[in-house]
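Protocol step 6 of 9: fold each sequence in the batch and record its structure tokens directly after the sequence line. For illustration, a two-sequence batch is reproduced in full.

Sequence one:
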Amino acid sequence: MSVAPDHSPTFARTSLAERLSRAAPYLLVPVLVVLGFLAIGAPSSWLTLTVSGLAMGMMIFVMASGLTLVFGLMDVINFGHGAFISVGAFVGISVLLALGSWTGAPSLALNVAAVMLAVVAAMIVTGALGWAFERVIVRPVYGAHLKQILVTVGGLIVIEQLIHVVWGPDEIFLTRPETLKGAFTFAGAAIEKYRLLAVVVGLVLFVAMRLVFTRTKIGLIVRAGVQNGEMVEALGYRLRLVFIGVFIAGSALAGLGGVMWGLYQEVITAGMGEEMMILVFIVVIIGGLGSIEGAFIGALLVGLLQNYIAFLEPKLALISNIGLMTAILMWRPQGMMPVVEAK
């Protein structure tokens, strides 16, 4: 008797090594937190530094998330991104200074309303600035990386000088809204209220971006455009409009990050965005081009490592992130979770 052939479907089995390789980036942050605890020793100091590192990482993620999409989807090296951070900070802080009666009141509702208005104003202005920047400066140099670097750096310098013209050349010092000042004690550790707020805002933004890119049609188009733009256009979608929308959204997120960083530092300067671009590019590179998850993990690694190293060995703090980037790229040359290959 002949036996009927087996037509049941077969599924490719992934080895344990492959599964560990995929999970490895997600394990880096918990591993770093545990190593930080072992190195620091004192639980209260470790908790304070961990919250500070998470807050710093979340704010860097806000600034880097837009740039990684622009870099991955549009293949644009935009050094002008730093200008949007600075402009967002100045616009947002100007709104907060104008609402001094709200920020100085011991009312959480008034304080939050003032911050929200500042954030909305900063995102609108930087989004509009991003639209003009893409149209005038970036569009003529698509596909030419060297020219992109030159013209976007030039745009950054011009915008910084315009900030001097509008707001003056001096630093602007500020204080946080009344209910966001100070710290509270938890498990013997002093945790600043604003840093905890920054952690919450960063988490909410990450979750929102994940939902947009995994659950909506526009998110599907953007993800497909990152991987194969020609195929998306062949299906009838106007990828150019998607490009512009992503650039505007990335610029607006830079403005949001600028407001958050200004309140974090309690001082703003025209060059603050340019200074932050070093950390932003490190996060984009180690996270992988076009990857929101990679940027999120990379930003947390940068924030935590810098805070731990600054406490343990202050002289090494300045080079800790360069060392992190070198180690990650030696392990995974394309970054931890790249959506597209480096071009």
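Sequence two, same batch, same settings:
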Amino acid sequence: MKPAKPLALALIAVAVSLTACQNREKRQRELAYVERPVEQLYNQAGRELDQHDYETAILLFNEVERQHPYSEWARKAMVMTAYAHYQRHDYDETISAAQRYISLHPGGSEAAYAYYLIAISQFEQIVDVGRDQGMTVQTKASLQDVLRRFPDSKYARDAQVKLDMVNDQLAGKEMEVGRWYLRSNQTLAAINRFRTVVKEYDETSHSEEALYRLVEAYLSLGMRPQATEAAATLGYNYPDSDWYRMAYQLMTSEGIMMDTSAPKRTLLQKLIPGGK
């Protein structure tokens, strides 16, 4: 009787995995018994990295640390190990290696890059707004860490670009939940979500819609002054947007006239309790 295909495939996968592990262990044993000058080891690791043999590069960078633990090359090898893991898309290993460097050399010349590697490894794992945004929140904190600690580094600009993308993602999640609350007639809960977007993510692409949704929500509750403030803020800041045109039509259909001459800061103070 022929074995089932899934079982055959599973056996092949196990065999391949075992072979890979054996080859890795063999290479580790070979490296362990070859003492070499630090520059030679480090440069060989760099060559393997350039040839995209990341696994061998990692082994060689580890050997730099093992054979020459107190050298400047060992410190650099730690960060390069993290980078090699990143190139393999082994993000957990990247973060672990970068954090190890930071814990041992917090003031090292490669610290900025170590922090940056942590942030971009988390960034690469962000999922769409329909799913949990825990990783997005972690990424935001890590990118802010890069900008706060190393504002003049060569990584700061990219960190800022990615932070803007992360904020847009988080705002998108708030909007998704807010719309769901609005459709479910949980209007107060929806208002809280939309106000969060206006207050914390006002520079994202979602702020216009958030203001319009606030107009909708406030009017549905009969809160005409709050609806007026939200519509006026929308009109003052986005006078040419489709969201403002819809808000204007909605307000005028309720017989409400708006004054858009007040500055944004004052309007946001009225819209967000406790605003400064």
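Proceed to step 7 once all outputs are recorded. Observation for sequence two: Residues 86 and 189 are 40 Å apart (CA to CA).
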